[in-house]
Design a protein that fits this description.
The structure holds 2 protein chains of 2 kinds. Chain A is an alpha+beta fold. Chain A has one domain (13-237): GHMP Kinase, N-terminal domain (Ribosomal Protein S5, domain 2), CATH 3.30.230. Chain A contains 4 helices and 11 strands; from the N terminus they run E-E-E-E-E-E-H-E-H-E-E-H-E-E-H. In chain A, the strands form 3 sheets. Chain A has a 5-stranded mixed sheet with strand order 3-4-5-7-6. Chain B has a single domain, classed as Ribosomal Protein S5, domain 2, CATH 3.30.230.70. Chain B is an alpha+beta fold. In chain B, a hairpin with a 2-residue loop joins strand 11 (185-193) and strand 12. Helix content of chain B is 29%, strand content 34%. The longest helix of chain B is centred in the last third of the chain and has 23 residues, at 235-257. Classes of the chains: A alpha+beta, B alpha+beta. Strand 11 (193-203) of chain A pairs antiparallel with strand 14 (221-228) of chain B.
Amino acid sequence: MENNELTKNGKRLDGREFNEMRPLKIEAGILKNAHGSAYLEWGGNKIIAGVYGPKECIPRHDANPFKAKLACRYTMSPFCSKEEHGRAGPNRRSIELSMVLREALENVVELERYPKAMIEVSIEVLQAEGGTRCAALVAGAVALANAGIPMRDLPIAVAAGKIADTICLDCSKIEDNYGQADFPVALAPRNNDILLMQMDGLMTKEEMFKALDFIEKSAEKIKETEKNALEKAINKVN
Amino acid sequence: MEPIDEIKKSNVKNLLQNNERIDRRGMLDYRPIEITKNYIDTGEGSALVKLGETKALSVIKFDVVEPFSDKPNEGVISTNSEMLSLSSERFESGPPGEKSIELARVVDRGIRSAEIIDTKDMNLGDGKVLGLFIDLYLLDYDGNYLDASALATMAALRNTMVPTYEDGVLIRDNMKKKLKLKGDVFMNTFVKIDDKILLDPILDEEVSMDCRLSVGIYENNICSLQKNGRGEIKRNEFEYMIDASLEKYKELKKIIEI
């Protein structure tokens, strides 16, 4: 597969426009034990997130007298891709992603309300089809809100990229693997503050800001999907 | 966070209110940069970078390895970093933590994205390829190990010799072939403290930061980004850091070419 084969008749291989997201479905409150949870399908991604806490901080010496500790664990299942069987548990990539996801969530969670406590966010990628870190952030954010943890905003995330010299929104796996750039971003939708930002590949400044425009324009839609999932979960309980 | 960091933080922030930094640098100035090429004789390439008081070593070694199954004719690049416990009281020995993994992956990402190394030229035949190993050793830590390590790696790659391959082994004596590079990748790391943006933070500035952005540049393109820390970045601040990075590329190119 070559990069220039990623578009056909001015469209993407899966028929999407360049600024079009894959279908996103979120369900909140799907686990019995977790204090908050979310299940998400985004294109071919299937991700489940569970939140426990606020609870006692473990290890105890990590307890912060001024705010809660947020622990975040992102892992990919060994069966999450169509190719070979992977390895279970954390690897170098997932340790890095767990860190940037944690920092993005720390921005919006009101950790100061729970000194010495700990809030645990566990995100499992059951099936991966490109853009899992952004999907993981959305799942984690919905699970946190579903756990009733106060947050300043409900963050959104989506990646943009570059395929066949064209900027596109929400890259699929094939576009990510054979495209020219991948640019995942998480935003606080109330003011479009950037919470998570990574990039690999090559982009000019102009291309990068066009990509950021695509991401900002899709924030509202993602936030609405998140909100609807949370409302539905509340109505179910009532 | 250490209690002493709170004192450092208030010092840094007080000065910044008058647009001053502890070491009196401008907001977008690097500390003095000193590059020692070929610092390690036993590596195929190496460089030690002193960025102010931060010292980072990067060493390039080759080995014969199996290719990845999806790229059977291409060489393999592998980057590892060690935040040595002697470099700071903040680092403990043991398996690499998330910061160390991030350092290796971010340096790797810039070089890989810009494709400055021709991995197709590293095919040895017989199902074997060259593995290019980048080892990052942080020797002394006074902030901004990312830029110091990335610059050391670039300087090391520019002086790397490629061993010859005979009868299944690499011959490292009398290496004549220089590693071909398509160009240079440089990284610029900024921290945001309140509403101020500073290039090349020293340790005191790093402990005071709200967040950090590292921008990798390859000529007129951005080739890697990594945001770090709990704080948020505004769109105009992001643009400011991109513009500054594109500008700094020429400055670092001059320094590395000396």
